[in-house]
Give the backbone structure.
Amino acid sequence: MIEVLAKSQGKILGVRLTGKATDDDYKKVFMPTLENLIKEYGKVRCVYFMDEGFQGWEVGAMWDDAKFGMKHRNDFEKIAVVGGPKWAEWSTKIASHLVSAEIKTYTADQLDDAWSWVKA
C-alpha cells in the first residue's frame, strides 16, 4: 500500500509504503500525484518511507516504478529513501545512477532528518 503523508506540501511529496506495494497503488495514488506535482512545479522532491511492515513490490508495481522513473529521470531534485530492508538501500544506489536527483538513504528512526534534508 502507498499512502501520501500529511507533511507533503508544495513540490515535496512524502509517501509511506507498507505491506506490499501494488500496481493499483502506483496507477491510482503514486503516479497521478507525482504527475500533477511535476506539471505544477517542474521538479519535485520526495520522501519514500518504507515502514516496518513493508514487504516489497508486486511485479507490476516494480515495472510501473521503473518506467515512471525513466520517463521522469530529470524531474526530481532530491529523493530521500527511509527505512526498508537492506536490499532497498542497494536498489537505491543503483537507481541513483539512472536519475538526475540527489538521493540519500536513511534508517527508519531518521525520518525527521530525511524531511529536513528534502526541504532544505
